[in-house]
Design brief:
Low-confidence stretches of chain A: none
Helix content of chain A: 40-55%
Largest interface: A-B, 19 and 24 residues
Structural class of chain B: mainly alpha
Order of helices and strands of chain A: HHHH
Low-confidence stretches of chain B: none
Mean pLDDT of chain B: 88
Shape of chain A: globular
Number of helices of chain A: 4
Distance between the termini of chain B: 55 Å
Number of strands of chain A: 0
Strand content of chain B: under 5%
Largest sheet of chain B: none
Radius of gyration of chain B: 24 Å
Number of strands of chain B: 0
Mean pLDDT of chain A: 82
Oligomer: heterodimer
Chain lengths: 86, 462
């Protein structure tokens, strides 16, 4: 299993804990906007920030928070990949 | 036709912008095919230059003043300097990595510092007059309009996304041709370039979405005119004659806040709620114009106002009421604070970020909005315009922070029971009451803060 695949599974597992109860996680693809598709509310983005800080040591203090990085599953995975390299 | 049939017919009409046949027909029109993303951007770019020039001239003097040569020279030079300044900022965003480290770390703070330096210069020389000071004043007066938009451009540079962009990709939203607010609807290049329609079909969808919003504007304007005639007895309303002067004759909130006479308690409370409805509809109408026009140019952006009166929490209302203002506060104040402060205390982190956005950022934004007294250093006038707003922003920030923390707590519970209709109604009523009450401190009136406070407490029988 590649790092990206492992990160994706972990992320999906986490998204299940913060998603709206009435929304199926399977209904979105990796490019869909998480807030735009209705899976999570904008407040849940903050929980994604905390999750990324704690799980992948992403330093938002250093890089700042770009909402575009948290928009979709794909963009979050790319952020994790960039953070792992740096 | 039965009820189900009526509902289906209503849905077909109200959702006409998603009708596949209509989309297919529109996307086959030659002008839709001809207006490629690049051509649309060119129209916006040249339109922005013209509108920007008109803006600098018309905002800073009455047209009759241009009978003399001096205003032409002053404002002409100010226009060129502003254009030059924006181009310099674009170069800074495009070559962001070459900027000094301190600027790279806090680009927005540095940019705003530049503006305050200019203000300090004008305050220092305010007793003097002359060509240079007139030009600098014109630039300072134009700055609040440009500062947030140019800020989005710098943020794009900081995120490494402005590197391959051109000046024309930015100018049309920095000097837009569709609105007159300091808040940038459609945010900046990063968001706009993501949502621009690339094919005739997606452009047709954007046009229909924009057209629907412009129809909604007409509807909300009619409702506002009806409210003006029936509730407030406004003689200027187009419907005044229709109702033969029949009206509830309730005062607007600003009339209550400007008069020293006593308003009956029931009228005052009704006025508070009606003011909230009025302001929401008025803002929705204005925002739909901005967003509708942007969509006509093929940018599928979010609505500025989306059913806030149906929000069940304070934070949801804040999110739906004035989306692009909320986004601005989020990006410039909330997220930077959230990223840097109280990282080991989740609750303090949220509270600090909310107060940075809804209190400090909100106050700062409105301070810049009162540009004339700010540039001419009229402190008493600024205090009379903004004093009560300090209380409004404090209450707003407190309400949002509590609402966010409650939502977070509820989410962490194992099972969330869906709310029934009565529970939902109570939640919505609670949100209305909160915003109607704090709006008391938001509306500008002639009363002093002490007089306003006495009136405020009298609403609760105190």
């Amino acid at each position: 299993m590649t790092d990206r695949e492992r990160h994706r599974l972990e992320l999906m597992e986490f998204l299940r804990t913060i998603q709206r109860p009435d929304y199926p996680l399977t209904a979105i693809n990796e490019e869909s906007g998480l807030v735009e598709s209705g899976l999570i509310d904008s407040l849940a983005l903050l929980e994604i920030v905390t999750y990324l800080e704690q799980t992948y040591r992403v330093d938002f203090n250093e890089r700042g928070i770009d909402p575009e990085d948290l928009r979709s599953v794909n963009s979050i995975l790319e952020l994790i990949a960039r953070a792992s390299v740096s | 036709m039965n009820l189900a049939g009526l509902c289906a017919a209503y849905r077909t009409i109200s959702q006409f912008h998603e009708n596949h046949r209509l989309i297919a027909w529109l996307s086959a029109q030659p002008w839709v095919v001809w207006l490629t993303p690049e051509r649309r951007k060119s129209v916006l770019f040249y339109g922005a230059i013209i509108a920007g020039a008109v803006g600098v001239f018309s905002r800073n003097a009455k047209w009759r003043d241009y009978r003399a040569l001096a205003p032409w020279l002053d404002h002409g030079l100010a226009f060129l300097l502003l254009l030059g300044l924006l181009y310099t900022l674009y170069l800074a965003a495009a070559r962001f990595k070459q900027l000094p480290a301190s600027v790279r770390r806090r680009p927005l703070i540095c940019f705003h510092f530049l503006f305050w330096l200019l203000l300090a210069l004008l305050w220092f020389f305010r007793e003097r007059s002359g060509f240079a000071l007139t030009v600098l004043s014109t630039i300072a007066l134009s700055f609040p309009y440009l500062i947030w938009r140019a800020g989005y451009m710098l943020l794009s540079g900081q995120r490494g996304k402005a590197l391959t962009s051109r000046f024309r990709d930015h100018l049309f939203y920095i000097w837009p041709i569709w609105d007159g607010t300091n808040t940038p609807p459609g945010k900046g290049h990063d968001y706009l370039s993501r949502v621009i329609a690339q094919t005739p079909e997606s452009y047709a969808r954007a046009i229909l979405g924009g057209f629907k919003l412009l129809l909604l504007v007409a509807l909300w304007k009619v409702v506002l005119e009806l409210l003006a005639a029936l509730v407030y007895g406004d003689p200027k309303s187009s419907f005044s004659a229709l109702f033969h002067g029949y009206t509830l004759g309730l005062p607007r909130l600003r009339q209550i806040l400007s008069a020293h006479s006593v308003t009956p308690l029931a009228h005052a409370w009704l006025s508070l709620y009606l003011e909230l409805i009025w302001e929401t509809l008025a803002l929705a109408a204005k925002g739909h114009v901005w967003v509708g026009v942007i969509r006509l140019f093929g940018f599928n952006i979010f609505r500025n106002t989306y059913k806030p009166l149906l929000a069940q929490t304070i934070v949801e209302f804040w999110n739906r009421y004035y989306y692009y203002f909320k986004e601005l506060m989020m990006e410039c104040f909330f997220l930077p604070t959230y990223a840097r402060w109280f990282r080991n205390s989740p609750r303090a982190r949220v509270v600090a970020a909310v107060f940075a956005a809804a209190f400090a950022g909100n106050m700062y934004y409105h301070l810049l909005q009162h540009k004339e007294p700010l540039v001419s250093a009229e402190w008493n006038r600024l205090w009379s315009l903004l004093g009560a707003r300090l209380i409004y922003c404090g209450l707003l920030a407190g309400g949002i922070a509590i609402s966010m923390l409650r939502q977070q707590r509820q989410r962490n519970r194992a099972q969330v029971v869906p709310a029934g209709p009565i529970h939902r109604f109570r939640r919505i009523a609670g949100v209305w009451t909160f915003f109607a009450v704090i709006n008391f401190w938001n509306v500008i009136g002639h009363l002093t803060i002490a007089e306003r406070a006495r009136l405020f407490f009298s609403l609760f029988g105190l």
